[in-house]
Amino acid sequence: MKKIYVLDTNVLLQDPYSIFSFEDNEVVIPAVVLEEVDSKKRYMDEIGRNARQVSKLIDSLRESGKLHEKIPLENGGVIRIELNHRSFQELQNIFIEKTNDNRILAVAKNLAIEEQKKENGRSVILVSKDTLVRVKADAIGLLAEDFLSDRVIEFDQIYTGFLEVYLELDELNRFYEKGELPLAEITNHPFYPNQFLIIKDSFGSSSSALGIVDHSGTFVKQLVFDNEQIWGIRSRNVQQTMAVELLLRKDIQLVTLIGKAGTGKTLLALAAGLMQTEDVGAYKKLLVARPIVPVGKDIGFLPGEKEEKLRPWMQPIYDNLEYLFNTKKPGELDAILAGMGSIEVEALTYIRGRSIPDQYIIIDEAQNLTKHEIKTILTRVGEGSKIVLMGDPEQIDHPYLDAYNNGLTYVVERFKEQTISGHVKLIKGERSGLAQLAADLL
């Protein structure tokens, strides 16, 4: 039986094309949702862009009929703007204040009551990304769902970038001697290009090896940069060794790193970037950027020039650079960076419209980027550049993103079959014993 889906504002602001995601059912947009969308369309961020996109989409539907009536969609469903069910009579004894959320609930509740009176009444489902709105809906007997169509993966099945395989000791020795093995001789399991294999002895000895699948996906080969020291930093665990391999390989233009706080993502990426630009000269400049999304309450406008305004947001980057340059005195790092001239620390706000050739680009905290923002960044990458995206999908500060629909997860899943990209999930924290316990327990 067909259903009626009532959409909350946050669904449209998260995905303007969500109105086409409900198959052949009826989509209802309460009038108060249009008011909320209208109040956001002047924002200069992703929410404002989506609000403007929603406005254009709904305006284009007017060509097919009147919005307060049912307008057919290409997927077989219909859409309409609900103008009449704003009566608070059913909910006035439960929710005293006529907030926008409660007005949306009232629309859905009144529609549900109407359908219940019909002989073949349809189910009315409120779709919202707001947890408390779904809780309120359940409390008044309404069906409520989260909007899940924007999720890249359904569950915690994000690609890790590595697999464990077991071989006999003779095959392990042959791998060490020849430097490669045909994947067909190991297992029938499908592999992705640049995927790592942790090869262990099937009889349980301590013998093991680490290999990487070649671009053709037919051979596993030894690492090019196994146990490589970069700017005084050595990998402390097997996943960090994988990360170093990806960060230093010229033929891998896109690297994605995910992991909890303290797993070494930023430090390894900066060390690799400095080595590739300053020592090897493979790139002209090292560009480091991160999105400006505050943790907790925003501190408001900051005084000073652009560099002074950016410093608080970019401090985690500078902390790692101070460690790599072994600076002791205040202002010493700034003097070093000014003298080198090949390191640029920037906010992502200033990347739009740029073309960035021959640079080693590091984007930190990429889990706070939307799919559209991550596309904007990747399309800025010019010839001869390498880009590293990293972050922790479990630590998201963006109001409309989660571990399953953020830009970093999106790139990991969409690029895992491409020969120019590599990915690894860092597991073990190396910052300190306390930091690892905090990441695991809190």
Please give a structural write-up.
By secondary structure, this protein is an alpha/beta fold. The protein folds into three domains: 3-145, 5'-nuclease (Rossmann fold); 154-222, Roll (Archaeosine Trna-guanine Transglycosylase, Chain: A, domain 4), CATH 2.30.130; 229-441, P-loop containing nucleotide triphosphate hydrolases (Rossmann fold, 3-Layer(aba) Sandwich). Helix content is 34%, strand content 19%. A six-stranded mixed sheet has the order 3-4-2-1-5-6. The chain has a six-stranded parallel sheet with strand order 14-13-15-16-12-17, with helices on both faces. A five-stranded mixed sheet has the order 7-9-10-11-8, covered by helices on one side.
The major sheet is characterized as: 6 strands, mixed
- CATH fold description of the largest domain: Rossmann fold
Say how many strands there are. 17
CATH top level assignment of the largest domain: Alpha Beta
**Class computed from helices, strands and strand pairing:** alpha/beta
What is the strand content? 15-25%
> What count of helical segments does DSSP give?
13
- Helix % is 25-40%
Architecture blueprint of SSEs:
Blueprint: E1 3-7, H1 9-14, E2 26-30, H2 31-40, H3 46-61, E3 71-72, E4 78-82, H4 100-116, E5 123-127, H5 131-139, E6 143-145, E7 162-167, H6 169-178, E8 180-182, E9 196-201, E10 208-213, E11 219-222, H7 238-248, E12 254-259, H8 265-279, E13 285-290, H9 306-325, H10 332-340, E14 343-347, E15 359-363, H11 371-378, E16 386-391, H12 407-415, E17 421-426, H13 433-441
Parallel strand pairs: 1-2, 1-5, 2-4, 5-6, 7-9, 12-16, 12-17, 13-14, 13-15, 15-16
Antiparallel strand pairs: 3-4, 8-11, 9-10, 10-11
Helix pairs in contact: 2-3, 7-8, 8-9, 11-12
GO cellular component, one term: cytosol
Protein name: PhoH family protein
InterPro entries: P-loop_NTPase, PhoH, PhoH2-like, PIN_dom
